[in-house]
Amino acid sequence: MRRLPLPLLLAGLGLGLGLGLGELEPPVPSGAQCLEHDCFAVFWTPGSFAAASAACERHGGHLMTVRSTVAEDAIGLLLRNRGGRLWLGLRLPTPCTEPERRLRGFQWVTGDTRTDYDNWAPSGRRCGQLCVAVSRELSWEERRCEEPADGFLCEYNYPDSCPRLPAADGASLTYRTPFGAAGGDFLALPPGSTAFVSPMGLQLLCEAAAVGGRTRWGRSEPGAWPCRLSNGGCEGSCEELDGTPRCSCPTGKKLGPDGRGCLSPCAGAPCEQHCVPDGESFHCMCSEGYQLGPDGSSCQDVDDCVKVPEVCEQVCHNTEGGFECLCHRGYEMVEGHCMPVPNCSTGPCDHICEDVPGSYRCSCDDGYVVDLKNPTQCVRQCEDGRCLAECDATGLSCVCPDGFVTDHLPDGVTLCVDIDECENNYCDHNCTNTPGSYTCHCQPGYVLVDVNDCKPISMEDNVDEYSGDSGPSLPFPSRVPPKAEHLHPGALVGITVGVLCGALVLLAVGYHLARKRCQPPSSMEYKCGSPREKEMGLQQVSASQKV
């Protein structure tokens, strides 16, 4: 057996394992599909979820997100009925799956869970480091992330794309994308893609969109290529004079530096503010308040305050690109004009005027008050039910405050007389008339519910919240009775002695009255004696009669 030299053996191991001899080139996709802004590629390279994700990221992509049926259709075209399982961009950030949720707790590698589509294979709740792979039947299966899958799907996103080049007579086209996909059946190509045209020997590049333009095919050499292939790359018209293709632009535009694009004459113009096209040339202009500088491109501020006639009535303050009008002290700006600040010399106060900073304040003489509708006027203050009416100069039109009516006296004086609203029975119960108004009062047992009406006080208003008694309410004192206090022991002894002394006095008086009643003259003593005593007394009387 022939032995390989040691350097070649080490190089082979390095290329196969990627050990310290530089990073391996990303694998070449087996197929790709591109839309206007997205490209999808399939890689039949076995590996773990982490290795697949890293391979997609090398060309600015990520593992594929399947958020709609459009992405599912792209997967079907990429698989082409080939068996195996491919990693998708779904991984589980939580300890266990949540089968009741649409994505079962999984998250896209883009960091979100937004989707309008899912196609899960039947599975219960599982735990661990799980990722998702798609099978030949396009169903989603949960797998352990460290286990190798048969390959993976990558997704690349772009802001714009170049259209497929139209077929030219006798020419064949081959495209190559930035992520390594090659072929001739692409419908759209992302920026950075190349197109090889044979037998012209032409290589074109899908260039990123210029400012205000779209992504289009171009090349590093300036000028047009053969007009039969995509108009020679000209934005305007393509012509071949003496066998040499050339581009031309419509009126008002000029050829760009690449000899194919058309630009405005103002493109790249040094004008500071405004550029106005002038055929294939231009000239600069400035906004109002500025004037063009000596260099023909810069703009300088115009001092409006030195213009004649003056732009302001009193004080002018120049600003960048304009000016500001101000007023002297004692004046204020009113609709663009300086007007004197109102004070007592110009104020329309009816009675008394008081100067205050920057204005004035009106007040009224005694017996008058400020009119609420016109703070500069005064009206009579009616307190006793009669006051003078406010009349015009002719005396034909007189006005009274609310709650008063006019009363014309014979001497021509018009008074305002208070209306007694209580005579109109506005109140349910009692009424008190006031100047210009009235006040209602309710009888006992009623309460005022609005300005005029009374309602009985409901039993619920007086029920003790702790008693639960629903019987008739008892009258309650208008003042809270004094709080009971404990008596001092000495006071109790004094009260007891006093009661006993009073009882003894009453007994002595009763005894004295009884004795006085029972001791009359001797002829009447029997009335109060015992029966025996009565008998002895009768005997004594009989004896004396005998003598």
TrEMBL record:
Main location group: membrane
Record keywords: Disulfide bond, EGF-like domain, Glycoprotein, Lectin, Membrane, Phosphoprotein, Proteoglycan, Repeat, Signal, Transmembrane, Transmembrane helix
Membrane topology (UniProt): Single-pass type I membrane protein
Taxonomic classification: Eukaryota, Metazoa, Chordata, Craniata, Vertebrata
Annotated Pfam families: EGF_CA, EGF_Tme5, hEGF, Lectin_C, THBD
Top-level taxon in the UniProt lineage: Eukaryota
GO molecular function: calcium ion binding; carbohydrate binding; transmembrane signaling receptor activity
Name recorded for this polypeptide: Thrombomodulin
Keyword Oxidoreductase found: no
InterPro entries in alphabetical order: C-type_lectin-like, C-type_lectin-like/link_sf, C-type_lectin_domain, CTDL_fold, EGF, EGF-like_Ca-bd_dom, EGF-like_CS, EGF-type_Asp/Asn_hydroxyl_site
GO CC field: membrane
Source organism of the structure: Coturnix japonica (Japanese quail)
